[in-house]
Amino acid sequence: MKSHGNGRLNWPGLKWIASKGRVGSCLAALLGIFSPPGLPSILQASETTAAAGPGSQTVNVIVINFDPVLKTRNNLKLHEHMKWSDPWQLTDRMVEDARLTSGGYVDYRVVEKIEHDGFTVFRDGFTYTEESFLHMWEKDRDRANPGMTSFKWLFEKFDLAAKIKAKDVREIWLWGAPYMQWDELHWKTPGDRIPYPTDNPWFYRPYDLPELDRTVWVMGWNYERGEGEMLESYCHRIESVLALTVGKGVWDHQRDPDNVWNRFTRVDKDFPGEAEVGSVHYAPNSTSDYDWNNTNAVWTFADDWLTYPNLPRQKKRLNAESGGWDGIVNHHRWWMKRLPRNPGVTDGFYNNWWQYIVNYDEALRKLPPPGAGFLKARQAMYAD
Description:
Elements: H1 13-19, H2 26-31, H3 41-44, E1 57-66, E2 69-70, E3 76-77, H4 78-81, H5 87-101, E4 106-116, H6 130-139, H7 151-157, H8 160-166, E5 169-176, E6 185-188, E7 193-194, E8 216-222, H9 227-244, H10 260-264, E9 298-300, E10 316-318, H11 320-323, H12 328-337, E11 341-346, E12 349-352, H13 354-358, H14 360-366, E13 375-376
Parallel strand pairs: 1-4, 1-5, 5-8
Antiparallel strand pairs: 2-3, 6-8, 7-13, 9-10, 11-12
């Protein structure tokens, strides 16, 4: 499995599902092999009520770049010395990619940029020095500290709780090098309450984030990588929150084949001739994880989702090139563009799924999901 974060495997929930012995490997495990007859009612009729149109949603962000100046390397910043990506250029790309793929709905605004000339502190108090990090990276990566960055330290060090309140911040974006050790995504809701119970702990990842008066997302990115890996981590965040909202806590086609989220993520591998949009790892015609350049053409309803909840059921025979999803960046943008983003409500959920992605608290307050219990998550990535 590829690593897109800071030395930590991305989307480890796939490994969890495989370990439970439910189905095959990686995302095929999530997609299952069950094809229900006919169309579920959720896709056949739009129960449209008074709801705000897509409009736009301003989301304030603080970005922290852990990029120490290396005194033994001509005073270059770590990313410069290693000839890795520029984190601030990638930040700009993320802002623009979110705006474009959401049809202008997502308006990320970076309200503070923090350049930190140093390394993170782990939960056990460990921190790298310039000397120890370079020695590990250049000579002995097997001895990298296996721990994880302390979010308690992070919030105290940068006074984030106060800044979140004062600047109405909803997200923290972290940039760092491999082995600074954080997950690709972290999020914490008040009281760790989620709408529906789930048995997949990777959907909700609060770790040791502090309790605040709002839901806060912390994205953990790695400037050793590029735009594609950054988008992949962001798309995993999308998969997590949609699985816990429109997916009602279940992402498994065998257990809940009629659910709209499960239908959105169908691929030809498991539903021959009936592919929809697929998932982050699987395009409609993929036969394995990360197979975004497959030249085999398959029938897919992917473009139907541009007009959700109106799904005309018009198949197109597409491959990576003709479909426009060739390569990691193109695929992830293509996938994000097909997330529903129209006005109205269908079967108790917003037709604009971006509301759950970037406007989570307000979306659930204004339109509580049907049957939601909002109990504390029992299966989650807690720190302990």
